[in-house]
Design a protein that fits this description.
Layout: H1 2-32, H2 35-45, H3 51-54, H4 56-97, H5 99-105, H6 108-135, H7 142-168, H8 172-181, H9 185-196, H10 200-218, H11 235-239, H12 248-268, H13 271-277, H14 282-285, H15 288-306, H16 313-332, H17 336-351, H18 353-362, H19 369-378, H20 382-395, H21 401-421
Helix pairs in contact: 1-6, 1-7, 2-7, 2-9, 4-6, 4-10, 4-19, 4-20, 5-6, 5-10, 6-7, 6-19, 7-15, 7-18, 12-17, 12-18, 12-19, 12-20, 12-21, 15-17, 16-17, 16-18, 16-21, 20-21
Length: about 425
């Protein structure tokens, strides 16, 4: 009876923890997927010369993960998971408030600084929350739990560009025409300043909400977990390891995260730029990110219903990679709205990749779980690098929009397929 009660209490505690982490993943999604709206907004408001400069938005954001993931692991060792998550939320709030002086001065570098600081907080949150949600239950069903987190993340991502786009890109097409056609420098500066000021109120609201969430998490009853017990089945193997670099499946997983995030950002944040390059108006392209995220939510729901009861997380990753390859080829053979629909459908292919890659990569790391998780979070820098490859092929080498996109994203899916086939079990 006591054993039954203990199991029931633990299950209730885990459910509460999953709910709290779900709220955090909602915040991740809301803030992260604002970038899809910020790219065209800042390109216009700061009068950027080309798409390469515009993609500095994603570069500034995702580079923070590379630099802060390992320090985040060290911070978590000192603070524990709960206080570490609260600290991450507070740092995000600091990054958000930087948008106010950035808008007032229409300073692109200051906007990028705000994005970098935001992502610094997110790096800490991600380093804590992903292994937390993976280990709080059986590792075999980790992809299912992360899929639930993905639904929270991408639902917020669907909402955020709609909200921010409605505020900062309202009547964007006629405003863009007016700004580009005016010859009066004073009038042009006034129009640009009015446009830039549109982000001030949304980011003040975001700052306040993040501070409130910081206090809520800090004083919550979120249970701590012992990641050093992860992978007990292979504890003897782990004892014989002296470095995280002795786990090939983890290192290959870091590269897999790198190319996956790059593909996800191309399908989500870059879809608007792709549409603009196809000649579509800004009032239309501002909604494209939401379409990609809708496809991802559908994929996550499929993952919750099927993993691990019907298919394993490794098989789900393999199927997702194959779908990504098929859609990439189809994009190459299409143009206009058809190619936009196919890019949005990449969200379906991408949806189950993070939920599968992360638990496969940290499986059996034992005492190396925290630093292994930090390495995987570093792989998120793919979101900074890979979109720049697409923009450079298009703007610097003057290759076609479609060819530049496909030649950038197709190798990503081919490598993910390799990891799903062999990479995840390397060294085991």
């Amino acid at each position: 009876m006591n054993t039954t009660a203990a199991i029931a209490t633990k299950k209730q505690s885990n459910t509460k923890a999953i709910f709290i982490i779900g709220v955090l993943f909602f915040i991740f999604g809301f803030v992260t997927w604002l970038n899809g709206t910020l790219i065209p907004f800042l390109k216009l408001a700061c009068q950027l010369k080309n798409d390469i400069q515009a993609f500095f938005v994603t570069s500034a954001f995702y580079m923070a993960y590379f630099f802060l993931a390992i320090p985040s692991s060290a911070i978590l060792k000192r603070t524990g998971y709960k206080k570490g998550m609260a600290l991450g939320l507070f740092v995000m709030a600091v990054g958000s408030i930087i948008f106010v002086p950035a808008a007032q001065t229409r300073n692109f570098s200051l906007f990028l600084t705000g994005l970098f600081v935001q992502a610094t907080g997110l790096a800490l949150l991600q380093t804590a929350s992903n292994p937390y949600i993976s280990i709080i239950g059986p590792i075999e069903s980790a992809a299912q739990r992360i899929s639930i987190m993905g639904i929270c993340n991408k639902t917020a991502g669907m909402i955020s560009p709609l909200i921010l786009g409605a505020v900062v890109l309202k009547d964007a097409t006629p405003l863009e025409i007016q700004i580009n056609s005016t010859t009066d420098p004073v009038l042009k500066e006034t129009l640009l300043q009015e446009l830039a000021s549109r982000v001030i109120t949304p980011y003040i609201v975001i700052t306040i909400l993040l501070v409130i969430l910081t206090l809520m998490i800090w004083y919550s009853s979120l249970p701590e977990i012992d990641t050093d017990k992860n992978g007990q089945a292979s504890s003897t193997t782990v004892k014989n390891k002296t470095s995280v670099f002795q786990f090939p499946h983890l290192l290959l997983g870091v590269l897999c995260i790198f190319v996956y995030v790059g593909a996800e950002v191309l399908a989500g944040d870059a879809i608007g730029i792709y549409g603009r390059s196809e000649g579509l108006p800004l009032d239309v392209t501002r909604y494209f990110t939401t379409y990609t995220l809708l496809a991802m939510v559908i994929g996550y729901i499929v993952g919750v219903l099927t993993i691990p009861k019907i298919i394993s997380q490794q098989r789900a990753l393999k199927i997702s990679a194959i779908l990504g390859v098929i859609l990439s080829v189809a994009i190459f053979l299409s143009h206009g709205y058809t190619s936009i629909v196919l890019i949005a459908m990449l969200g379906l292919a991408n949806s189950l990749m993070w939920p599968a890659i992360f638990p496969l990569a940290i499986d059996g790391l034992g005492k190396f779980t925290k630093i292994g998780s930090a390495f995987l979070i570093m792989g998120i820098v793919g979101g900074a690098a890979i979109p720049l490859v697409y923009a450079s092929l298009k703007d610097k080498l003057h290759l076609s929009n479609t060819f530049s996109f496909v030649v950038t994203i197709l190798p990503c899916y081919l490598y993910i397929f390799y990891y799903a086939l062999k990479g995840y079990k390397a060294g085991k």
